[in-house]
C-alpha cells in the first residue's frame, strides 16, 4: 500500500510538471495510464510510469515499438478491475461525491418545474407523470453510461484526450445534439417494432408497456455498463418492446421484418466496420509511414481526410438545399472550409516541428525508405513506423484529427440516440395525459433537454467503464489506430444511415477497433474481451424482452389500483 501510494504521488507530481510546461502536443499515454491500475511491482512501475509521463520517451520508445512490431499482445493491465469514478477522472472523492449529490438533487427537483409534468391535471396523473419522467431519465442515464463510448472511447484509449476532458467535451456536445438535432416527432410505436392497432382501446396497458420498456432497457444497459460491455441501446429498446408486444399483444403485435433487420445488423455492422478500419489503417501505414518524410505526409493527408469527413457529414446530417446539385455544392464548401481551418491549426500547433529539418531520425527514415523503395510495397505490406521527431508529428496530427472526429460523433450521437429514451417517454406522457394511442407524438423541448441531461449524467458517473473497454481492452490504440477506427466507423454509419441500411453504431465501432487490431496481427486483439462483447450482443434482445415482461406485469398491477 505504501509503495502504491508513493507511486500515485509520483505520477501526480509528474503530471503537474507536464501541465505547467509549454509542450503543445497531446500527452499520449499519460491519460489512459492514470485510470488503469499498474500491475507491475514497485521497482519496475517507477521506470514504466516515468517513460509514459515523458512525452518524448512515450512517443519515441513505447509507440515506436508498437508501430514497428506487427502483432504485440495486449498488456496485462487491461485485465485488472476498473477503479471508481474519482480515480478514473483523476478527481478527489469529495468532488465525486458532490457531483453525485448535485445530479441526484437535480433529477428529483427539475421535473417539478417541467411543463410536461401536466399542469392543471389531477394530482394522481401528475404523480404518475413525475415517475414516468424518472423512468425516461433512467434510460437516458444508461445511454450516456454505455453508448457515449462510441464517440470518445478511441480518443481516450489512444491518449488524444484525457478522460476528464473527453467527459466535458462529450457532455456539452451530447446535450447540444440532443436539444438541437433531436427529433421532435416520433411515433408511439418506437422504431416501427409494434403494430399500433393491436393496442387500440388498451391505453393503460400500452402506457405500462412503454414505461416497462424504458425500465427494462435501462436495467440491461446498467448491467452491461457495470461490466464494461458496449451494447446497442437501439437493440435494448427494441428487445424490450418486442417482449412486451409478444407477451401482451401476441405474434401479430410485432413487425417481424423490422426485427429481422435489427438482427441482421449484428453481423453486418461489425464486419463492415472491421473491413473499413482495416483498409484505412493500412492506407495510413502505406502512404504516411512509408513516405520519405512521414510528418509532412501526415500534415498533407490530414486536410484531405477532414475535407472528406466534413463534406460527408454536411451532406448526410445538415439541412441543406432540396436541390441535389446545390446541396452537393454546399457540402463541398463546408468540407473545404473545414480542411483549410484544420490545416491552419496543424501549422500553428506543429509548425515548429514541421519547419525543423529532420536530423538524426531523418537518416533513419531515409534509410528505411530507401530499403523499402527497392521492394514492391503493397497495401498489405508490413511497414515499419517512424521514430523520433517524425513520430511526434504524425501522432500530433492524428491526435488532433481524433479530437475533431470525436466531437462530430458526439454531437451526432446526442441528436440520434436520445430518441431511444425520449421517444417512448413522450409517447407514454401523451397517453397518460389524454393523447391518442397511435399516430405522431410531438416531443416538447423540455423533454428533449431532459433526455440530454440524462445522457450527460450517465456519462459523467459511469461512462468511463465502457470507454475503457473500447479504448484499452480490445486492442492497444495509438492516435493513428484510433483515428482509423473512428473515421471508418463514422463513414460506415453515415453512409448506411443515408441509404437506410440496418447498421448499429456501437457494433460498427467495436468492429472497427477490432479491424485495426487485425491489421497488426490476430494476436493483437484480446479474444476474451471480444467473446464477452459478442455474448452481450446476443443476449441484449432476449434480456430486454424478459425484463419488459416482468416489469409490465408489475406496473399493470400497480396502475390498476392507482388510476
Automatic annotation (TrEMBL):
Localisation: Membrane
Transmembrane regions: 96-115, 127-145, 166-185, 205-229, 236-257, 263-284, 296-318, 324-342, 393-412, 447-467, 534-554
Family membership noted in the UniProt record: Belongs to the inorganic phosphate transporter (PiT) (TC 2.A.20) family.
GO MF entries: phosphate transmembrane transporter activity
Membrane topology according to the record: Multi-pass membrane protein
Protein name per its UniProtKB record: Phosphate transporter
Keywords per UniProt: Membrane, Phosphate transport, Transmembrane, Transmembrane helix, Transport
CC per GO annotation: membrane
Function: Sodium-phosphate symporter.
InterPro entries on file: Phos_transporter
GO terms under biological process: phosphate ion transmembrane transport
